[in-house]
Amino acid sequence: MSKATGSFRDSVDRMFTHAAGLMDLPAGLEEKIRVCNSTYTVRFGVRLRGEIHTFTGYRSVHSEHMEPVKGGIRYSLDVSQDEVEALAALMSYKCALVEVPFGGSKGGLCIDPRAWNEDELEKITRRFTYELSRRNLISPSQNVPAPDMGTGEREMAWMADAYKRLHPDDINAKACVTGKPRTAGGIEGRVEATGRGVQYALREFFRHDDVMKKAGLEGTLAGKKIVVQGLGNVGYHAAQFLSVEDKAQIVTVIERDGAISNPQGINIDALRGHVLATGGVRGFAGGSYREEGLVGLEDECDILIPAAVESVIHTGNVDRIKCKLIIEAANGPVTADADDVLKRRGVVIIPDMYANAGGVTVSYFEWVKNLSQISLGRLERRHEEARARMLIEELERISADTGTRFTLAKGFKEEFLIGADELELVRSGLDDTMREAFGKMKEVWMTHRQVDDMRTAAYVVAIRRISNVYGSLGL
Ligand code: NAD
């Protein structure tokens, strides 16, 4: 059971305040950046199964120093004002850290999505969208939601369609939400983006010997033992890419109904198939099952990836956490108290605002695509291919004319002659974003005398950027 003390919002504020205290901010600006600008609560009724059901939803706007504000919509029974405000604050810092030109926002609906069928969820989502739209809390220029826990492409498509019906003359209507299916204006690579970003963040971490040393790690990702909590959108993609492409070993996966462990590495695709078919990990043949899943967080491993909910590492279990590195794929999985303990013990944490920024980064690409009304690479792809072909043909001509023999590596020509498609461009932009942000965090971490962890470094970079925007606005 959770032993989290203080709320999620308190934890985020404490981490923020610690970092802001190391900076020389103009009087009053710390408070202005920290506070949540507004939170809207809505209660609405939908007639389902012969009676009216009342739902409670929130949309919180943390900072409008840049607009639109951006952040996911979560469907969960645990959604509360405190939670959406904490998540909205993290969105402001995250966007600033990865230089995505948005302010921070977050929304949620108190609902167990598994308790309703698809038609019912559609009705509820469309009604929620109507309520948000009436208050400009969904709009391409002011507030752009995205998927989060319990929501995905399907819900975003319903929201985009509901918005379009309310605003038929808005040519940019599609840009009112991101994370839509490709057929409804989405972008290649958005579904995988957050998990892919976790992989790129780890790859970048493993390129730096000095930071690896801080965690007591060496070598490459290959063979590293990893524990993952949550095999949803983020956890699945991160685990799948790390195991298949980087040859890491996923030794434990924790889900709602328990944990599966296999010291030889779990076949993630097979486990995901099992979860989708049965609703949980119980009964999976490719590993041993434990009903008390949360204990899996304490398994011996190199890297722990919490990718489910907040506050799962707290004062009640932190002393038993045995990994060397935690990468926060979920938002807020480590409480501020536990963070202090882990820091003292030398466990390195790659913080949420960086680790899971892949989602908002690719959402930004989708938003730009929607506003420009053209898919990425459409104008230049064939032109790029023609120039590559010219180069190869010229080399071949010179070779024939001069009698100089050269041999291209196997497969090089075929690969070189293919121009980048949307997915490749998205992945390239995401990789660049993750590497750039890592560099900025590392610079602060390594050079600022009082910054003793990566989270504080991330906050310092983010707060500095937000403060610069306020400065240029005359605040
Ligand atoms: P999801 O709903 O797709 O998956 C969540 C998974 O966690 C599910 O499989 C669920 O069964 C499992 N889970 C829930 N509670 C659990 C518990 N107590 N113990 C073990 N497993 C549990 O959600 P997601 O989109 O993958 O989001 C996961 C986390 O990543 C959240 O913190 C979210 O805010 C964060 N995040 C998501 C995105 C995104 O693009 N989807 C972007 C940034 C951050």
From TrEMBL:
Q: Which family does it belong to?
A: Belongs to the Glu/Leu/Phe/Val dehydrogenases family.
Keyword entries, A-Z = Oxidoreductase
Q: Which organism is it from?
A: Paracoccus spongiarum
Q: Does the keyword Oxidoreductase apply?
A: yes
Q: Which residues form the Glutamate/phenylalanine/leucine/valine/L-tryptophan dehydrogenase C-terminal domain?
A: 187-474
Q: Does the keyword Electron transport apply?
A: no
Taxonomy, superkingdom:
Bacteria
Taken from the record, one Pfam family name reads: ELFV_dehydrog
Q: Kindly provide the name given to this protein in its UniProt entry.
A: Glutamate dehydrogenase
Q: Which InterPro entries match?
A: Aminoacid_DH-like_N_sf, Glu/Leu/Phe/Val/Trp_DH, Glu/Leu/Phe/Val/Trp_DH_C, Glu/Leu/Phe/Val/Trp_DH_dimer, Glu/Leu/Phe/Val_DH_AS, Glu_DH, NAD(P)-bd_dom_sf, NAD_bind_Glu_DH
